Amino acid sequence: MIPVPSGAMVFGEYAENWNSVKDGTPCILITRNEGIVFKKVYNYLQKQSCFLLVSSNRLYEPYLLAAEDVLEIWKFSGYYSGQFPEE
Fold first, then answer.
1. Which value, in Å, is the radius of gyration of the alpha carbons in the chain?
2. Residue 20 gets which letter from DSSP?
3. What predicted TM-score, i.e. pTM, was given to this entire model?
4. 10, β-bridge pairs
């Protein structure tokens, strides 16, 4: 996943049913302890009651987040950037 440009506004669609989130879906998560994060989500709800979160920035390691620590999930639908794309 190509990182979203710094300062861009990210838009999402509210996910009522967390089980419907497919592996690798970019999502905005509202969490109890980490605040708002934008990650690719891998759904481990059925097996481990958690999500694997993977950053588009390879400097950050993937990590597991317990479902009880998630308040809301928004599936990525697009972004707006005032910057013109570089070639």
1. 13
2. G
3. 0.86
4. 79
Nearest by Cα to 73 from 32, 24, 44, 31: 31
At 80, which amino acid appears? Y
As a whole number, the mean pLDDT across the chain is 91
Distance between CA atoms of residues 54 and 50, nearest Å: 13
If you write DSSP's letter for every residue of 2-63 in order, what string do you get?
A: PPPPTTPEEEEEE-S-GGG--TTEEEEEEETTTEEEEEEEEEEHHHHSEEEEE-SSTTSPPE
Closest to 53 measured CA to CA, from 18, 29, 19? 29
66: which strand partners? Answer: 50
When pLDDT is cut at 50, 70 and 90, the band that residue 85 belongs to is low
- Sign (positive/negative) of CA torsion 74, 77, 82, 38? positive
Query: Which residue, 81, 74, 72, 75, is CA-closest to 32?
Result: 72
Q: Which residues are within 8 A (CB) of 69 and not within 5 positions of it... i.e. 6 or more apart? A: 31, 32, 33, 34
Amino acid at 65: L
